[in-house]
Every structure is written in structure tokens, then in C-alpha cells.
């Protein structure tokens, strides 16, 4: 785990991880997806969901084979905004494009309750920021 000079774990402190670690982690996830798929032709979904509880509301994007199973143990309620079927390789490139844009636009959101995938959460302005990327796809706006 990454430690700061004072010995705190960066992930638990809520501060962003270093670019070097983030790049390494994304590569590890890609290796994992490719092993799981054995080829890049695995069918999956690129998704965008609005997550919420009584105190928070934010957007999460990602890739999953089964969205209902993906969020089964999630501590937040959710509403699916985009659930687009595609092959893994296409989904991976779309997710990477979206994440780069959102990181650049400083739209990251850190949920108060941690869960698997909480590092891919963003402010609700994300929807507006991604409209250009999704201009040629069916796009669902937040209520």
C-alpha cells in the first residue's frame, strides 16, 4: 500500500493516489479483464449510474458483465443512466476516454461510504461533461 511520509495510507485518507500508482493499477485491471475474457471479445456493459442515499448523490461509471450483481452489495441506491452492451475492448477504451476527461475536468467525487469501484465516482456535473463523448449514442440525462 502507498504510505505518506507520516505513514498514512493514501487510499484510506481520501487523498488522490499518485499518477504512477493509478497508471499501474489501471494496467493491472486491464490484465485482469483480459485474463477473464481470454480474448477481448467478451460481451459486457459500459455503464453510468446515479448513486445516492439521503446525504449524497454522485455518478459512477464502469464496466460490468452483470450490473445487478455488480451493485448487489453496494451501500447506495442507484439508478442506471446508461447501460450499453459492447465488447470488452471497446468498453475499456470508452471507459478510459471518459475517466481521462473527468480527471482532467476535476470532477472526482469521494463517497463517504467506501465500496468496490468508489475511485470511479464523479460529481453530478459529469453528465454534462460527457455529453460530447456520447453525442452519437442514446444518452439519458439525470432527473
Provide an overview of this structure.
The chain has 143 residues and is of the alpha+beta class. The protein has one domain. Helices cover 34% and strands 22% of the residues. It is built from 5 helices and 4 strands. It starts with 9 loop residues before the first helix and ends in a 14-residue tail after the last helix. Mean pLDDT is 77; it is low at 1-13 and 139-143.
Q: Globular, elongated, flat, extended or rod-shaped: what is the shape?
A: globular
Query: Which regions are unreliable across 5 or more consecutive residues at pLDDT < 50?
Result: 1-13, 139-143
Rg: 15 Å
Question: Order of strands across the biggest sheet?
Answer: 3-1-2-4
> Mean pLDDT, rounded to whole units?
77
Secondary-structure element order, as H and E? HHEEHEHEH
In total, the number of domains comes to 1
What would you call the structural class? alpha+beta
- Tally of DSSP β-strands: 4
Cα end-to-end separation: 39 Å
Task: List the total number of helices.
Answer: 5
Helical content band: 25-40%
Brief descriptors of the model:
143 residues; alpha+beta; four-stranded antiparallel β-sheet; 5 helices; 34% helix; 22% strand; globular; disordered N terminus
Amino acid at each position: 500500500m502507498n504510505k505518506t511520509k507520516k505513514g498514512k495510507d493514501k487510499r484510506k485518507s481520501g487523498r488522490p493516489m499518485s499518477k504512477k500508482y493509478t497508471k499501474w493499477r489501471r494496467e493491472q485491471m486491464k490484465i485482469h479483464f483480459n485474463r477473464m475474457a481470454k480474448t477481448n471479445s467478451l460481451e459486457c456493459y459500459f455503464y453510468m449510474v446515479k448513486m445516492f442515499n439521503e446525504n449524497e448523490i454522485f455518478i459512477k461509471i464502469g464496466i460490468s458483465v452483470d450490473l445487478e450483481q455488480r451493485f448487489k452489495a453496494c451501500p447506495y441506491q442507484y439508478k442506471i443512466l446508461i447501460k450499453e452492451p459492447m465488447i470488452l475492448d471497446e468498453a475499456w477504451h470508452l471507459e478510459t476516454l471518459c475517466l481521462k476527461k473527468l480527471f482532467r475536468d476535476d470532477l472526482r467525487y469521494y463517497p463517504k461510504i467506501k465500496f468496490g469501484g468508489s475511485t470511479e465516482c464523479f460529481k453530478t456535473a459529469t453528465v454534462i461533461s460527457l455529453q460530447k463523448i456520447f453525442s452519437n449514442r442514446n444518452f439519458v440525462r439525470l432527473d
